[in-house]
Amino acid sequence: MTDPTLERYRQSIDNIDAALVFMLAERFKVTQAVGRYKASAKLPPADPGREDAQIARLRGLAAEANLDPEFSEKFLRFIIDEVIRHHEKARGDG
């Protein structure tokens, strides 16, 4: 017999995980379009100033949400690195 309270928590976690996957998919659709645009406009795949601003913004949001800012930065850095890899590929570098 499963514990109903634990099952409710797990269902919520499963729902959140599903939402995260779909949100990341949408984010990558947009960043892939950005990569194609950057390639056609001969812009560099990476934008360190934008990346730094986004990391600072996300760290602030994380602090407001009582989420470890270090974790949020690592998570965003992982995403940014993947986006840059896609942009390099769109440009023909990868």
Automatic annotation (TrEMBL):
SUPFAM superfamilies from the UniProt entry: Chorismate mutase II (SSF48600)
Isomerase listed as a keyword: yes
Top-level taxon in the UniProt lineage: Bacteria
UniProt cross-references to InterPro entries, sorted A to Z: Chorismate_II_sf, Chorismate_mutase-related, CM_bact, CM_dom_sf, CM_II_prokaryot
Keywords, comma-separated and alphabetical: Isomerase
Gene Ontology MF annotations: chorismate mutase activity
Signal peptide residues on this chain, from the entry's feature table: none
Domain Chorismate mutase: 1-91
Transmembrane segments: none
Enzyme nomenclature, EC number: 5.4.99.5
PROSITE patterns the record matches: CHORISMATE_MUT_2 (PS51168)
NCBIfam families listed in its UniProt record: CM_mono_cladeE, PRK09239.1
Protein name (database record): chorismate mutase
Organism: Sphingomonas donggukensis
